[in-house]
Amino acid sequence: MAQEISEFGKVFLFLAVGVIFVVLGFLTSRLIRPHRPYPEKLTTYECGEEPKGSAWIQFNIRFYVVALIFIIFDVEVLFLYPWATVFKQLGAFALIEAFVFLGILTLGLAYAWSKGDLNWVVPTPNVPQMPTKKFENPRKKKAQETTPNAPETVS
């Protein structure tokens, strides 16, 4: 009695062989590779620079907006490549459709531009104020502002 494997059995067998293949690859690499960790090797590598500070900082939302706009237009322009390969076979109607497509992309870009999503916000610099009087100590001035009835001393 020869039994055939059902379609689900074939999928399960394929997944099981894939998992076994990956696990055997990891085990083999762990047995063969040298394992000599040291502090320099275990540090995070960031473009050749030593990492400073925490990686958990808040990014400006503009990074994400510009990235999303780029991805949208990049993927949409990608649709023009298949059209360009068969352009001669499609004729004038395809040329009109391509111009309509590019017009819609241009309108989308104009809309994003008009909303200000392409403008990059530059933060205003925080420049410390220098003392205006000669030999004025800014720390004493700040202390006098907090205690208005304090006598003025000269040092």
What CATH calls the topology of the domain at 61-115 is: Methane Monooxygenase Hydroxylase, Chain G, domain 1
Provide the low-confidence segments as ranges: none
Secondary-structure element sequence?
Answer: HHHHHHH
Q: Helical element count?
A: 7
Largest sheet: none
Return the CATH class of the domain at 61-115. Mainly Alpha
Helix content: 55-70%
Strand content: under 5%
Q: Give the end-to-end Cα distance, rounded to a whole number of Å.
A: 108 Å
Number of strands: 0
Q: At CATH's second level, what is the architecture of the domain at 61-115?
A: Up-down Bundle
Structure explained in plain terms:
With 155 residues, the protein is mainly α. The protein has a domain at 61-115: Methane Monooxygenase Hydroxylase, Chain G, domain 1. The chain contains seven helices and no strands. The protein has helices spanning 7-32, 39-42, 61-78, 80-85, 87-90, 92-115, 138-146. Helix 3 (61-78) packs antiparallel against helix 6. The radius of gyration is 33 Å and the shape is flat. The N and C termini lie far apart (108 Å). The mean pLDDT is 79.
